[in-house]
Amino acid sequence: MSTTATAVTAGTWTIDPTHTEVGFTVRHLMSKVRGTFETVEGTLVTADDVTASTVSVTVDLSSINTGTADRDNHLRSGDFFDVETHPKMVFTTTGVTQKSDTDFVVAGDLTIKDVTKPLELAVEFLGQGGDPWGGTRIGVEATGQISRKEFGIDFNIPVAGADKAMIGDKISISINAQAVLQA
């Protein structure tokens, strides 16, 4: 397997926040709640050897949107993200492994509430091409999973008559992103 990314131009790419979605899913009682973070910024630096590429992404935690204002405000509070003290979530790569022409594992450090833990994302390269504004774009989709308790986000409520809590610990992450090559 080649580690040369012939389909990706080497260079610095800026995440396009209007065409990027950072989403999550968590169990809540007997169903799942989905949400997104609406403010994200970051940079991808692609190398001729794709395994030498890097990613740095910052998410504004106050931009959380689950479709319910009261829940979003609670998630911003000290029970969860404590955005007044810890306004950002940051991911920075520590390594890239190429699995196929379009599939990669991007390992990195995720920091939430001043706690840094390793995170592996399964990344699918969706392609590179021109856009209507004269730029060059790439698209990627990534998935991963974290334990919210490992980041000190452990608020919960026991469910009466059940042997479980209201909110699950495992958070599934899904990212769809476009980035624009910088001139």
TrEMBL record:
Matches recorded under Pfam families: YceI (PF04264)
Protein origin, superkingdom: Bacteria
InterPro entries: Lipid/polyisoprenoid-bd_YceI, TTHA0802/YceI-like_sf
Domain spans labelled Lipid/polyisoprenoid-binding YceI-like: 12-180
Family annotation (Gene3D superfamilies): Lipid/polyisoprenoid-binding, YceI-like
Signal peptide start and end residues: none
SMART domains linked: YceI (SM00867)
Family assignment from sequence similarity: Belongs to the UPF0312 family.
Protein name, UniProt field: YceI-like domain protein
Organism: Aeromicrobium marinum DSM 15272
